[in-house]
Amino acid sequence: MNPKYRRIVLKLSGEAMAGEQGIGIDIDTVKQIASQIKSIHEMGVETSVVIGGGNFWRGRDALTIDRATSDYMGMLGTVMNGLAFQDCLEEMGVTTRLQTAIEMKEVAEPYIRRRAIRHLEKNRVVIFSAGTGNPFFSTDTTAALRAAEIDADVILLAKKGVDGIYDSDPKFNKDAKKFDNLTYYEILSRELKIMDSTATSLCMDNEIPLIVFGIDEPNSMIDVVCGKDIGTNVK
Ligand code: UDP
């Protein structure tokens, strides 16, 4: 199969790393994702990954902790995911670099845009962790920001438990209708809860295409990179 894209940002939620238990890291699940990334990487696609942290901590959920502090805790969670993901990829023989938006140079290199691009050109998978480095943002916004910064062709938003964007939550409404194509404007005007509005606006303003797809199907990541018509296309 031939890849459709030259350079991608894959956004993985923290939940995707957690497997069935829903929290923490399930190494077998991470390995399954990593093996698909390895295949994509071997096709010659310049691959970067923005990793979430909701399997450890979500800033907005901790009502008794100062929001900014809580968000920093969330960002640290993404670094743990990044390390686990890096380890699995390297174990499979894929060269990687983990970058953090909050400096912790004993653990990983700091986020430096030009360096990230150079790594991609040198065929290394780049994992972006610690979000944007700022509280009050999300890792979806990070994906939009990094995609704009590194001039990615597309953002692939991998979702657990759902295979695209629906007009209402398919977990609660069995008549929910899935969209094949959408615009960012429609996401905002219909208040579809697929990404936060900051991330949606950033993608819209910078005209970054997005594909929302499910990762529960085996090989869905490879399929989406090869242009198979799955999930929802947003332009
Ligand atoms: N976070 C943040 N700034 C960022 C990215 C993330 O403060 O730029 C914090 C925020 O508290 C968030 C948590 O990190 O809830 C984990 O990220 P996110 O919820 O986006 O992870 P996901 O839902 O993708 O697992």
UniProtKB/TrEMBL annotation:
Its EC number is 2.7.4.22. It holds the Pfam family AA_kinase. CDD domains: AAK_UMPK-PyrH-Ec. UMP binds at residues 53, 71, 132-139. GO terms for molecular function: UMP kinase activity. InterPro entries: AceGlu_kinase-like_sf, Asp/Glu/Uridylate_kinase, Uridylate_kinase, Uridylate_kinase_bac. Residues 19-24 are annotated as: Involved in allosteric activation by GTP. It catalyses: UMP + ATP = UDP + ADP. The keyword Kinase applies. Pathway: Pyrimidine metabolism; CTP biosynthesis via de novo pathway; UDP from UMP (UMPK route): step 1/1. Keywords: Allosteric enzyme, ATP-binding, Cytoplasm, Kinase, Nucleotide-binding, Pyrimidine biosynthesis, Transferase. NCBIfam families: pyrH_bact. Belongs to the UMP kinase family. Homohexamer. Catalyzes the reversible phosphorylation of UMP to UDP. This is Uridylate kinase. It comes from Peptoniphilus stercorisuis. The lineage of its organism: Bacteria, Bacillati, Bacillota, Tissierellia, Tissierellales. The gene is pyrH.
